[in-house]
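User: Please predict structures.

Assistant: First:
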Amino acid sequence: MKNSYSESPAYKLAIGTRIVGKWHQERYKVVRSLGAGATGKVYLAESVNGFVALKVGVDNMAITSEVNVLKHFSKVQGQTLGPSLLDVDDAVIGGVTLPFYAMEYLDGVELLSFLEKKGFVWFGILMIQLLGDLEKLHQAGWAFGDLKPDNLLVVGPPARIRWLDVGGTTLLGRSIKEYTEFYDRGYWGCGTRVAEPSYDLFSVAMIMINCAYPKRFDRKGEKPILQLKEMVEQKQYLGPYKQIILKALQGKYKEAAEMRKELVQAVSNASSYEVKEMKPSRSSRQSPSREKKKYKQKKTSYFVEFFLLGSFILLAYILYLFGQMM
């Protein structure tokens, strides 16, 4: 089911609205909107235990399905695949009884905003983390479905990517129930909308492209895969990841672990390339003293980032080897 919005009261809660659970009597006060999807709207709310993310739904079956997914995630030992579930109840809103659930509020920064602020050096690391989480999700029998930057937050320090909304999560083998066109392989003519690992991996490739094109772009022509290839080739910093992105777009990865392993190597290769790029140009028109000072500042900044990058690469690789032994 494609994203759609409703005129339901679930989408119209004003700041300060108070919600009382019909069965558990837990009280919540709406602070602001966090986002919306086809199954309802998510709000930041105050509770007696602090801030929570409150999803108010428009359909009991859809909310029940999402709650079951969150409960299932909580049983995956040693993994944090989504926000923790805190409460499930009904509330009378605008004269209508609507289902809702409260979950852990993830205080972070949206993926694209984080990269814009912190720099592209974090790009590969966060994608490695995302693929590691997807591997666990797929092993548990689910596809994320509606995978996009809007559903991803970076929390920390240390920086860690987390999922926001599990509304599109679908059992493997079934039809994807919620999607967003730009990240959907059906929209790009690159496959079906059947829930399988390769569906999510296509979305990861589109997220990587979206990081280079924050405003996105529309499909054009009769061969959209060629359009995507051209868009990747036009961005120099996607160069180290070009083959990985194209393989994911063409459905050549059957498991997230395959794509993750190659991405770890690509990030390592990209860091070596960046070291060469840091050398000062011979054709610089600056005075020797000014050029030397600027280069020294760049070098110091770079080695701090390089140290962090190297540490995360090592950690990602260790986690990968550990995952292989599980």
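Second:
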Amino acid sequence: MTVDEDLEKLLENLPFFIQENLKNHSNKENLIEIVMDLGRRPEARFHSGPEYLSQKIVSWQDLDYTIKRISKFSDDNRAGIERTLHRVSCIRNRQSLINGLTCRVGRAVFGTISIIRDLLESGQSILILGKPGVGKTTIIREIARVLSDEMEKRVVIVDTSNEIAGDSDIPHSGIGRARRMQVSKTELQHQVMIEAVENHMPEVIIIDEIGTELEALAAKTIAEKGVQLVGTTHGNCLENLIKNPPLADLIGGIQYVTLSDEEAKRRGTQKSILERKAYPAFQIAIEINDPNSWTIHEEVTNSIDLLLRGTYSTIQTRQLGPNEKTNISYTKLQPTSRALFQSSRNLKNITTFSNKDWTVLSDYNVVKPKNVKTKQLLVYTYSLSNNLMKEAVSKIGIKLILTKEIRKASLIIGLKKHLKQNLKLKKLALEYNIPIYTVNHASVFQLTRLLQFVIDQKL
């Protein structure tokens, strides 16, 4: 893996007292960005953490020195340095005067996508998710080079902020033979995406930072035209897209569905559920946990469906080990470990899952249920299907014994609306010191959460 960073071209545009401290810095190869805020000491941010560069505070003259040596700031307050990948972003005061600069180091890292080379060769569209600064732009820059140079595909990059191919009319060599389309205004990115398909016959389109509903719709339109997409968006995982209505179309869109009583009973769910609306624009999703550890969803449709149902899902993790060897492992996640909470302008009446879906009747919860420590529960169920209870218990790996004798039960579980009316059962539970738990709905999801709570609390 080799790195081309042109760091000197960034440093020579900074005030001398900052240059002096960074040129000979022992950790400069791990530099992420330099922050210059008016009236504060300049700060360098490394992978290991931040560090002050000088005792001298930044003045108006220091900011002006840098501003005059870089390109003009666009409407998104970003500028660049000619023929490099570095980015300079500004902060303005209420009079639109610049009082802060963030100088991001841009690097072309050759070989960084060897970990997903097989996915690129599949020809499927790939969505890359990660928090800011994790290296998404560096990854898609290398993807552009590999697809255009090594796989000889016609690649067009929609480069809104000139971060992928640099701030110059001549693209940086880091993108290989890929062509770059610049965007005059940030809000026009979706139009340039469509224009790229209609005018330049690409086999692959690469987009950085898909962030609006119009851009998500444009990506969906491009996918329907049979063009391979590679895009990035902010978010730690797929659940973030489900909870983000403007971007939900990237993974097929989410809709609110009301099931019939029979169908809800067959599925073991509530009548009101969420379902995927359409086929996603991206078939593969990659979550960038850190530069050397990526989570892969090879079938986005399957991953989204499992998340919405609240069932088990298996995720693939790829790590780059010593000698650049790729290690692949699989992890089975329980539904409670990645539970979904809905927030959508179009889904205002959806019932969300939380601890309020079940209740501990504390008046009867005065002793520890018997046998919990041995992971064995004797449960007396009231107005709940035994098969439903067994399915819920099988998901958390505990031994369940259903009993018809209240005196022998470790706990009682039933539907809230029915238990409220059974005064005799409440009296017996109080007499034998048996805790009672109620759920609002007879669903596997709620029962699983309740039983997991019992085990975790070691009641």
